[in-house]
Amino acid sequence: MSKLPHLNETGEVHIVNVGEKDSTRRVALAEGRILMAPETLAAIREQRVKKGDVLAVARVAGLMASKKTWDTVPLCHPIQLTHAEVTLEPLEDGSGLYCTARTETVERTGVEMEALNAAQAALLTVYDMCKGMDRGMEITGVRLMHKSGGRSGTWERDR
Q1: pTM reported for the whole predicted model
Q2: Around Cβ 45, how many Cβ atoms within 10 Å?
Q3: Is 104 exposed, middle or buried (0-12, 13-18, 19+ CB in 10 A)?
Q4: How far is CA 158 from each of CA 28, 90, 92, 144, rounded to the nearest angstrom?
């Protein structure tokens, strides 16, 4: 009925069977931004946010989210990550923060969802920790930038 891998021949949703796939090294990189008032960014950089070190907590939140993606996205396989990294840095124009999340595994399925989940969780954590000073923050541009490994090979987003 459908060529979508999460639908079976009768159109019912299921988890894709990856049992016949080879375990290969797989890497994914996602990015996103959170836009904010200059005063909010200054408070983050100067560690004046009452809830604590925003960047450190957001990095940890992203790492934790990468490991639990299967628990929140219904059709994701639980996979063992071999590496995860989350970075947050000020945007050059001072309008907010830029986040990258890199995930790696040696598995039978990719880590794109883990990278995307990590970036989103890190950015949501920034929002949560700073919402008392800036409810107008905007999370934007969360997207996959790179994936490699597996049968489909390497994919790069054209910037």
Answers
A1: 0.90
A2: 14
A3: buried
A4: 15, 22, 21, 11
| Residues in the chain, total | 159
127 burial (CB, 10 Å; 0-12 / 13-18 / 19+) is: middle
Maximum Cα–Cα distance across the chain: 57
Active-site residue set: 128
In single-letter form, the type of residue at position 121 comes to: A
| pLDDT tens per residue across span 34-93 | 999 999 999 999 999 999 999 999 999 999 999 999 999 988 889 999 999 999 999 999
pLDDT at 1 over 50: no
pLDDT digits (tens, 9 = 90+) for 93-133: 999 999 999 999 999 888 999 999 999 999 999 999 999 99
Strands (E), the chain: 24-35, 81-90, 96-107, 138-148, 155-156
Domains and CATH numbers, the chain: 24-152 (3.30.70.640)
